[in-house]
């Protein structure tokens, strides 16, 4: 009221205040208007509305945790070389041009470039890709990523607010701040409805006051509530109008449907932050899917073993896996796990092991000299790889990482590792397309691997964006929004956070990072892509129920307000109009709640 605008709060205030004031008068002056009270009505309205607002505010407040966790990724200190001496300094004191040392297991303090040393760096928290990136002299480093197994000597090129992580934090903050709350349908209706009710109640009071004073006998006021005062007639009729127009049904129309809808979603592993999220997702027309961890498993797996010599494939794989047991690289882990999955026993540790950054490894296993790695590794050992090119090209065309296995100087075969498609992804994308949605895949992976996955799951080649940075994902969301599309983005990595909050509906896979889940509107607990289609259908069903509830709640008022106005002319309502108004209001609430409970049958 302070801002001279009417909404649901105005209706709630008027309804509960009218019921309470009338109850107070009835309590202390029962001879005036009778002993009927409406304390329970006033209390019920206020309790339900404040509970709903508390739950909504709590759900919205959780999105701020994403910012805190992004900030928490930053390294706290750095090992800086000053005047030839290593000094540990707070990260805030690192300057552009400083030389730093990063040991295995430490976070890269700031963005920079490798001066010397080599290692594999886990950039999954920034790029979302599960395979660590080999870093050698001249390679760029991203702050907050994890150095795995080598000592790196680096120079700082970006510090403070200029780092990649800082830019991601800024983008999340800006995207969260730019989200305008959706205007609720109930408020739209009430903004028109409340002034009308006020006018009607005032006119009812004035009208029956005039009529009562002019012709008390004609309206038979002598027996009304034991008093002949025409003011009482007017007050009772006006209060009946306010009580019957009390927004209990309107107030329940949205929260009850949302409560049932979100509860039903939780049963199916779909966690929805609140009604605002449901309202946004039901209108989605385009879905952008991150590849790693969303469409695929997000973990490299052994997919192919190609025998190219007299050494049996199982023997070749066993020796390669035993050699890889000395490595901490995820590709090595994929080979080891793949060998075990094939029933091979790995009981011999390598007698000698050397990790060669960016190339592979060399080891001695069971007396055999083993090489597992790239073409470059073979070239360094003067071993021709031309004979395996055709096999490698075919596997690489499928987006797989291929490693050559050499035993005692002879190429024994190939092993291929890839991030494989999740069970259900193909069917899920088919369902999304059948709903008439544009389906896109976005990834930081290379174009070849991205197109290979897209082909497997049925995404059009022109809807594939590869080798993108976090800001590219958010920008593409903006591009689709500029076309007038309501956009959903599904991802699981920290790098997806800007796109998740920029999208009209952010969907996080429950198998992903906490930051992705907290920056999103919906979390899929099972990490199953089929739940995206289910979430869309559930949101549409919930919004349809809300609209039905609002329609019946409004229709109830349209029908019963005139009845309340004319109550002095209806014999059985003359003395009991507020009571019947309260009963009618309760029945309208029961109708709305019952309609909302139908959502419990969703999916059956």
Written overview of the protein:
- This protein has 4 domains: 191 residues, no CATH class; 82 residues, Calcium-transporting ATPase, cytoplasmic transduction domain A, CATH 2.70.150; 145 residues, HAD superfamily/HAD-like (Rossmann fold); 122 residues, Calcium-transporting ATPase, cytoplasmic domain N, CATH 3.40.1110.
- Helices cover 50% and strands 19% of the residues.
- Helix 3 packs across helix 9.
- About 4% of the residues have low confidence.
Report how far apart the termini are.
Answer: 45 Å
* Count of discrete structural domains: 4
Instruction: Report the biggest beta sheet as strand number plus sense, adding barrel if it closes.
Output: 7 strands, mixed
Q: Helical element count?
A: 23
Question: Which regions contain 5 or more consecutive residues with pLDDT less than 50?
Answer: 59-64, 174-183, 221-228
């Amino acid at each position: 009221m302070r801002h001279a605008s009417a909404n649901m709060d105005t209706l709630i205030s008027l309804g509960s205040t009218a019921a309470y004031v009338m109850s107070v008068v009835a309590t202390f002056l029962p001879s005036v208007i009778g002993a009927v009270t409406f304390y329970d009505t006033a209390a019920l309205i206020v309790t339900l509305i404040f509970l709903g607002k508390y739950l909504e505010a709590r759900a919205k407040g959780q999105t701020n945790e994403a910012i805190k966790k992004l900030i928490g990724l930053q390294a706290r200190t750095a090992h800086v070389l000053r005047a030839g001496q290593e000094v540990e300094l707070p990260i805030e004191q690192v300057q552009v041009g400083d030389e730093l040392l990063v040991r295995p297991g430490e976070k890269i303090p700031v963005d920079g470039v490798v001066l010397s040393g080599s290692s594999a760096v886990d950039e999954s928290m920034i790029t979302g890709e599960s395979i660590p990136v080999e870093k050698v002299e001249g390679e760029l480093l991203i702050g907050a990523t994890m150095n795995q197994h080598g000592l790196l000597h680096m120079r700082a090129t970006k510090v403070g607010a200029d780092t990649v992580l800082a830019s991601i934090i800024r983008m999340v903050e800006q995207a969260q701040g730019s989200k305008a709350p959706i205007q609720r349908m109930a408020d739209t209706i009430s903004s028109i409805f409340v002034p009308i009710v006020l006018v009607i109640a005032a006119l009812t009071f004035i009208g029956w006051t005039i009529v009562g004073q002019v012709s008390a006998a004609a309206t038979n006021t002598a027996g009304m509530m034991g008093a002949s005062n025409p003011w009482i007639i007017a007050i009772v009729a006006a209060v009946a109008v306010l009580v019957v127009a009390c927004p209990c049904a309107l107030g329940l129309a949205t929260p009850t449907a949302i409560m049932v809808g979100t509860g039903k979603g939780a049963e199916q592993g779909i966690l929805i932050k609140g009604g605002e999220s449901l309202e946004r997702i039901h209108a989605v027309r385009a879905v952008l899917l991150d590849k790693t961890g969303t469409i695929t498993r997000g973990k490299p797996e052994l997919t192919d073993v190609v025998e190219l010599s007299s050494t049996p494939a199982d023997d070749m794989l066993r020796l390669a896996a035993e050699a890889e047991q000395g490595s901490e690289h995820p590709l090595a882990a994929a080979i080891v796990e793949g060998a075990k999955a094939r029933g091979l026993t790995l009981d011999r540790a390598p007698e000698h092991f050397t990790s060669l950054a960016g190339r592979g490894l060399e080891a001695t296993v069971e007396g055999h000299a083993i090489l597992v790695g790239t073409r470059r590794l073979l070239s360094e050992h003067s071993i021709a790889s031309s004979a395996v090119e055709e096999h490698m090209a075919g596997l690489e065309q499928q987006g797989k990482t291929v490693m050559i296995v050499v035993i005692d100087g002879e190429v024994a075969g190939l092993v291929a590792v890839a991030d494989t498609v999740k069970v259900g992804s193909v069917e899920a994308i088919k369902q999304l397309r059948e709903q008439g949605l544009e389906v896109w895949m976005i990834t930081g992976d290379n174009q070849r691997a991205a197109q290979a996955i897209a082909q497997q799951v049925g995404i059009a080649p022109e809807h594939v964006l590869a080798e993108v940075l976090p800001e590219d994902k958010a920008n593409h969301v903006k591009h689709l929004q500029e076309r007038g599309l309501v956009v959903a983005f599904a991802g699981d990595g920290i790098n997806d956070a800007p796109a998740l909050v920029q999208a009209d509906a952010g969907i996080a896979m429950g198998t992903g990072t906490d930051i992705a889940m907290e920056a999103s509107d919906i979390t899929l607990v099972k990490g199953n892509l089929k739940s995206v289609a289910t979430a869309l259908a559930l949101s549409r069903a919930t919004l349809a129920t809300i609209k039905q509830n609002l329609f019946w709640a409004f229709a109830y008022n349209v029908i019963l307000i005139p009845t309340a106005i004319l109550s002095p002319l209806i014999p059985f309502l003359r003395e009991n109009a507020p009571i019947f108004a309260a009963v009618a209001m309760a029945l309208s609430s029961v109708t709305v709640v019952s309609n909302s409970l139908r959502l419990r049958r969703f999916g059956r």
